[in-house]
Write a structure and sequence with these properties.
Number of strands: 6
Number of helices: 26
Oligomer: single chain
Strand content: under 5%
Structural class: mainly alpha
Shape: globular
């Protein structure tokens, strides 16, 4: 009965944290809009077996997350709330799972500390209010790893072997083979460090492979029967490119993910470091669990430090082991060490200063201008962020909380002090996400999306020229009939008589060229930015409609036939 009350309380906590204000800001380019558009096209076309972008095959991601979003869109309509709702549900399920595992391996207090460390840290909370794939992807990877932990602990329990395999298989169906690779690397390193004790028999491995394939093969079989094996080759080509090149300028230095985890998984990161630095007496079962979490943490950190494309959420799988280590440290803590207090102050006050500086600086673009070298940024900083003038107070409150915690940390009960810390950060971050995120969005893409939403009510075409975006598809409400327009098909045939060699990506690129050069039957609005505006300015048949915050909006009218 006690556990039931705990789970209900966790569900209520998750609902309060994750469900409100999900649709308050526009979806962000690229990932959020990209994924929501794929789901919108599933709803519009009724084709749920094939992932599409611009109504052409999109081979970069498997369909599971889009099924969730499409289902949500059937419930709530095609909007931002629906796109983010599945991750809010994932947040509640994740917190419940952490409580169950923490309670099983230690006690109820450990379960609650793991929940607080996860929900009370910056990025772990933020991602459950987003529309990206990673929360579900990470949950399935973690099930794959934890299932294998229990498989070993319970003397090769087939139930947990199947759970592990299904979790790994669902991770592949959600985002791709990186999921099973992370499970395999973690398990493999564990066996290497234990000199292959309790290694599974061959028939267990075969059963694992079979169960791993169960979630994946029905979709692959349907896709191959309809479209052949081409998409599999393109999918693996894309995954290789992400690992070996800096995709779309998303590069970074080797320690990129360490910095992300240190500052943006605050305050759990402080005590995870403390766990690694402080030796504690633990039961064999808990010591084994800690070993698994350390292996998982370093596998994620090292793998994504090697991968050339550097994006913050790539290392989000590390949130599970990092918050476990933090929770374990706090559960065993009598009082924090001086190192932990110093790290808490340095990291927390730095974040607080950034929270103070950001709204103040953005409200004074003239002061920023001399430091801006990029022409688009120079114009974007003059966007109306709709600041109310008091947002900097959140940073001041954060610094005050951190200072109070640092002063009393070594004088009061660790349970009371740490509870106050994580609950305070949980509340402050939730308020900051709700208030500040929509304002930041105004600078990065607000003018473009406002224009697209306005034009979506007209009979016209919209297209992005000179930079990558998916906003014109989702917010411009691209229609299937636009991409199969007879004039477009005729123009492609003229430009490329052998259309059999064209890929879906080729068709998406040619669509913009058709709107610029081909015969059209309604106005085509072409959106570019300050970096590329010269490309359209030289055209006498294309006129500027308006420019705003670094975006330039042009129109090409159809030529009336004599």
């Amino acid at each position: 009965m006690q556990n039931l009350r705990d789970y209900l309380l966790i569900a209520c906590l998750g609902a309060l944290l994750f469900f409100p204000f999900l649709g308050q800001s526009h979806l962000f380019d690229w990932d959020e809009i990209n994924f929501a558009e794929a789901s919108r096209e599933m709803v519009v076309t009724g084709n749920y077996t094939q992932t599409q972008i611009d109504f052409r095959q999109f081979w970069e991601k498997p369909p599971f997350f889009f099924w969730l979003q499409a289902g949500s869109m059937h419930l709530f309509g095609i909007n931002e709330y629906a796109a983010r709702f599945p991750n809010a549900v994932c947040g509640i399920l994740t917190l419940m799972l952490l409580f169950a595992i923490g309670t099983f391996h230690y006690d109820r207090r450990m379960g609650w500390w793991w929940v607080l460390c996860y929900a009370g840290s910056i990025l772990p909370q933020f991602y459950f209010k987003s529309g990206i794939i990673d929360p579900w992807f990470n949950l399935f990877i973690f099930l794959g790893i934890y299932g294998f932990i229990r498989y070993i602990e319970q003397y090769r329990s087939l139930k947990w072997l199947v759970i592990s395999a299904l979790g790994a298989g669902l991770s592949v169906l959600t985002k791709g083979p990186v999921g099973v690779a992370l499970v395999g690397l973690t398990v493999g390193i564990y066996y290497i460090t234990t000199r292959f004790r309790q290694f599974p028999p061959i028939w267990h491995l075969l059963l694992y492979i079979l169960c791993l394939a169960l979630p994946i093969m029905p979709w692959v079989a349907v896709e191959v029967s309809k479209n052949g094996t081409w998409f599999i080759q393109e999918f693996f080509t894309y995954q290789t490119r992400l690992a070996t090149t800096e995709d779309a300028s998303h590069g970074g230095f080797p320690g990129y993910h360490f910095v992300v985890l240190l500052f943006f998984c605050f305050p759990a990161s402080t005590f995870a470091i403390g766990n690694m630095a402080v030796k504690q007496h633990r039961t064999p079962q808990l010591q084994t669990m800690r070993k698994w979490m350390l292996i998982l943490f370093w596998v994620v950190l090292i793998v994504f430090s090697i991968v050339q494309t550097k994006i913050a959420h790539y290392s989000s799988m590390a949130y599970f082991p990092l918050t476990f280590l933090a929770a374990l440290r706090i559960r065993e803590m009598i009082k924090p060490t001086k190192l932990e207090v110093i790290l808490l102050c340095i990291t927390g006050i730095t974040i607080g200063i950034c929270m103070i500086a950001l709204p103040i600086v953005l409200q004074h673009p003239d002061a920023l201008l001399p430091y801006m070298q990029d022409i688009f940024t120079q114009q974007a900083i003059y966007a109306d962020g709709l600041w109310m003038g008091w947002e900097w107070i959140l940073g001041v409150i954060s610094i005050i909380v951190i200072c109070i915690i640092a002063i009393i940390a070594r004088k009061r009960s660790a349970d009371v002090v740490m509870s106050a810390l994580f609950v305070s950060v949980m509340i402050i971050i939730n308020i900051a996400i709700t208030i500040i995120t929509p304002k930041i969005e105004r600078y990065s893409q607000g003018a473009m999306i406002d224009f697209l939403e306005e034009k979506s009510q007209e009979s016209c075409y919209t297209e992005i020229i000179g930079f990558k975006s998916y906003a014109h598809l989702f917010y411009g409400q691209r229609k299937l009939e636009d991409t199969t327009n007879p004039l477009y098909m005729k123009w492609i045939k003229e430009q490329h008589p052998d259309t059999t060699v064209l890929t879906p990506l080729d068709y998406r690129k040619l669509y913009g060229q058709w709107l610029m050069y081909g015969e059209i039957d309604k106005p085509a609005y072409l959106i570019t930015n300050a970096r590329k505006k010269d490309f359209l300015e030289v055209r006498t048949d294309i006129s500027l409609v308006e420019s705003k915050n670094g975006y330039y909006f042009y129109v090409r009218q159809p030529v009336k036939q004599p």
